[in-house]
Task: structure prediction
Amino acid sequence: MKTMFKEQGSSPATAKDRSPRVRFRELSAGYPGRAVLHQLDAHIPALAITALVGPNGSGKSTLLGVLAGVIRPTSGELRHDGDRPPAFVPQRGAVGDALPLTVRQTVEMGRWGDRGPWRRLTRLDRATVDTAMQRLAITDLATRQLGELSGGQRQRALIAQGLAQESDLLLLDEPTTGLDPEARERIATLLTELVTDGVTVVQATHDLEAARSADTCLLLHDGHLVGQGDPEQLLTASTLARIWQPA
Ligand code: ADP
Result:
């Protein structure tokens, strides 16, 4: 993993002092016949963890898809300040149990962006895959099928696939949802370490504990950005009650 950590000052910079890794203005996006995101203005600070928070259907995954370049904005501006394509870690549920893939094959797919699926991996690619697996402590699971794993193990395999892409921007969709506290904690610690190594992390999450431990958050409601900034200040009981109230 490339090191791009730039902060050297005596007092740690807060997320709002950091330069943007991604910025967007009046960004709208959605699906054919379905507008989802409406005129969002925000930025994703570099070398920080940003949580995308909001109720189900508020547009978190759609925004991740836009940041990943999978969903094209219908209007507005989106600017990336980075030299690598983002790495996208999908929701565990979106990855079929029935796929006959081993953990190692799953992680190797992270090299396809550079290599293409039909070219043999180089020695360097294999070393990158090994490092990603070690980092997620899944080396012992290399030959196991994805479908046989626990939720936490499968999540780690998917994150390792993301790391194998060696991007400076890691986008994760609900990485801790449904996991036990130990598995959640493990992933939270890893994400913090990745930031120290020079990676910008964005995670969509329902998990308020994960959101509160992020450096900054974007709060979505019904496709609108209704708040951005320090999670502790933003995610107050009254705001949450207002946003999460049943329709
Ligand atoms: P969240 O991640 O916050 O749960 P999503 O971004 O998944 O929200 O969904 C936002 C809205 O977009 C929802 O109303 C959802 O039904 C709709 N949506 C999501 N994916 C698609 C799709 N592929 N086609 C059409 N509508 C979609």
The mean pLDDT is 88. Residues 31, 34, 36, 54, 56-62, 204 surround adenosine-5'-diphosphate (CB under 6 Å).
